[in-house]
Design a protein that fits this description.
heterodimer, A: Non-ribosomal Peptide Synthetase Peptidyl Carrier Protein, Chain A, 3 helices, B: alpha/beta, GMP Synthetase, Chain A, domain 3, 26 strands
Chain lengths: ~80, ~525
């Protein structure tokens, strides 16, 4: 399962001139200067609100959020644990 | 005060050079050898062990050549071993030049080629990037991960007698970082003030958040070493991870925090449901503190007193403000001057103003730099008035009836982003260097979350997108200097009558640009 609103959020919030489909699954969002450490906080607030999950302080490491596929894995994992 | 340290530090009493600074630290360590430096992973090295390692590093350094000043560059992760290496450089009587290992390799090598250090200290994190440069330039390489290089005798040469103690680099409008030269008396006067003002004691544990390449690290390194306090080092990975910072504070029962406000924003987020009663002092500097973050921090640190500190690389800290826990003003004032600082507020014609006023801040203090490596640059930022040499901060401030100063803006295009000073001219030039960019200018755009760095770009052809530009700039600039948003527009840049891009107008255009609805795109889901 993929999460189209995630891609749209990242484009709208961090890279307005790009269309969501230009953000490929494995594009490194941090290395490419799209999301920085404060941007990760915004992303986490979005994930918690949009996907009804809780990110704990131990999971705030920006290294967990380098790519869209990594972020989607987190959402899937959280939903599986909650189910 | 009658000190005129800038350009002339020969008349200073006390600690005159790096070797004397090292000896003062060694003496302090002899009195309290068991204090520790703690790595981000929780590994502890006693100050006494630190000193032993410093001697090892000193033994790896080459013999001083000639009578000129020597600088040893150090580009490593922020570890206890890196601190020992800095002490080893000081012990040899040389200046240390800390470089940020997270910066792009091309930028680091540009700085090194310009600096021509007597030696380069690296570790496992930076060796692969920088060893080829050292070999090409014929500069001795010391790898902290591998121990002394083959052929190193361990011989301790007589220390140099120079006053130059530290060399820092800060963003310059030309694209070439400005090299700031700081002498030992400046560092000594500063650490003295910090120790006294915040009563730093052996019972304290101070958390160092800023990279070693930042001026904030003078407080972090020299105050704990001189007072026998513990020192916890947030390395680059820990520094951007709120959860890791929180764990570090819990594990070390840290009592003093020092960073830019953005780091405290990460911490406030991670510590939403936590309280850290050990923290007694929270020092922050470098940019405005958001009011909502401050409230969250009051909860996280129930027993701490908060201090907003103002300063810059060229002068170190010059003003500070004790933040009241009830009804703190927003924005926080810069506050009152440090005891050894004199200052002026001048109008557009450089005439000093009295009483409540608005103008550019000039400061003079014993913690001032000796100058930039380029004397022409130094002349641009210094001015003599009433027998004192002042540094023109470029900051526009307001002084109120009570004598409190508040920052309101800049005279030039220098901004602070996540606590990092960035000259927008440097970012403009980097963007203009992209082959598909016809024109480009950057500016700060106000949003609910604070000021955001925007880039306005006129592309040479329509295929250019911000992803290309982001990837290009990431190879040239520190992360903090990367624009967060791009506006690509064929219409060209709005210019003033001199033909220069007008940043103020760009802000207005960007506000309009944001308004029209995005073109319909079937692949795009609606905004959540």
């Amino acid at each position: 399962m993929s999460y189209p609103t995630l891609r749209t959020f990242i484009a709208d919030e961090f890279a307005m001139d790009l269309t969501p489909d230009q953000l490929t699954d494995d594009l490194d969002l941090i290395e490419n200067g799209i999301i920085d450490s404060l941007g990760v906080l915004k992303l986490i607030a979005f994930l918690e609100g949009e996907f009804d999950l809780i990110i704990t302080p131990d999971e705030l490491d920006p290294d967990n959020y380098h790519t869209i596929s990594m972020i989607e894995d987190i959402i899937r994992e959280k939903h599986k644990t909650a189910a | 005060m009658t000190h005129h340290p800038l350009l002339d530090q020969t008349a200073q009493p006390g600690i005159r050079g790096p070797r004397a600074l090292f000896e003062a630290i060694a003496e302090a360590i002899a009195a309290r050898p068991a204090a520790t430096v703690i790595s981000a992973g929780g590994r502890r090295l006693s100050h006494a062990d630190l000193l032993a390692r410093a001697r090892d590093v000193q033994g790896c350094l080459p013999q001083p050549v000639g009578t000129g000043e020597d600088v040893v560059a150090i580009c490593t992760e922020k570890t206890p071993e890196a601190i020992a290496a800095i002490l080893g450089v000081l012990a040899s009587g040389r200046a240390y030049a800390p470089l940020d290992p997270t910066h792009p390799g091309a930028r680091l090598m540009g700085i090194l080629s310009d600096l021509r250090p007597a030696a380069l200290i690296v570790d496992a994190a930076t060796r692969a990037t920088l060893a080829p440069w050292a070999e090409g330039a014929g500069v001795p390489l010391i790898d902290l991960a591998r121990g002394p290089a083959p052929g190193t005798t361990g011989q301790l040469y007589p220390p140099s007698a120079q006053a130059l103690c530290a060399v820092l680099h800060t963003s310059g409008s030309t694209g070439k970082p400005k090299r700031v030269e700081i002498c030992a008396p400046a560092i000594d006067a500063f650490q003295d003030w910090v120790t006294e003002a915040f009563r730093i004691a052996p019972s304290d544990c101070l958390v160092s958040h800023a990279p070693l390449a930042f001026d904030l690290s003078f407080l972090d390194l020299f105050v704990p070493l001189m007072t026998g306090a513990d020192l916890a080092l947030a390395d680059a990975a820990c520094a951007r991870n709120g959860g890791a910072l929180l764990r570090m504070l819990e594990a070390t029962e840290a009592t003093v925090w020092h960073s830019a406000p953005s780091a405290l924003t990460l911490l406030a987020q991670a510590g939403r449901n936590t309280q850290l009663p050990h923290m007694r002092r929270v020092l922050f500097a470098g940019e405005p503190m958001p009011a909502h973050t401050l409230q969250a921090l009051f909860h996280l640190f129930p027993n701490a007193r908060f201090v907003n500190i103002y300063g810059c690389t060229e002068t170190n800290d010059t003003f500070y403000y004790e933040v009241p826990r009830t009804n703190p003003p927003d924005p926080l004032p810069l506050g009152h001057k440090l005891p050894y600082v004199d200052y002026l507020i001048v109008d557009a014609a450089d005439q000093p103003l009295g009483g409540p006023c608005e103008g550019e801040l000039w400061v003079t203090c014993p913690t001032m730099m000796r100058g930039y490596a380029d004397p022409q640059l130094t002349r641009k930022v210094t001015v003599r008035h009433g027998g004192q040499l002042y540094y023109r901060t470029g900051d526009i401030v307001v002084r109120n009836d009570a004598g409190l100063l508040t920052f309101i803006g800049r005279r030039d295009a220098v901004v602070k982003l996540n606590g990092v000073r960035v000259d927008l001219g440097e970012v403009d030039r980097a963007l203009q260097g992209h082959p598909q960019v016809s024109e480009a200018a950057t500016f700060l755009f106000p949003t609910a979350a604070g000021l955001v760095l925007y880039a306005w770009v006129t592309p040479e052809d329509a295929s250019l997108n911000s992803l290309d530009l982001r990837q290009y700039l990431a190879q040239l600039l520190p992360a903090a200097a990367l624009p967060k948003r791009y506006i690509l527009d064929d219409a060209g840049l709005p210019k003033n009558s001199n033909g220069k891009a007008c940043r103020r107008q760009l802000v207005q255009y960007a506000a309009q640009h944001a308004k029209p609805p995005a073109p319909a795109d079937p692949t795009t889901s609606p905004r959540p």
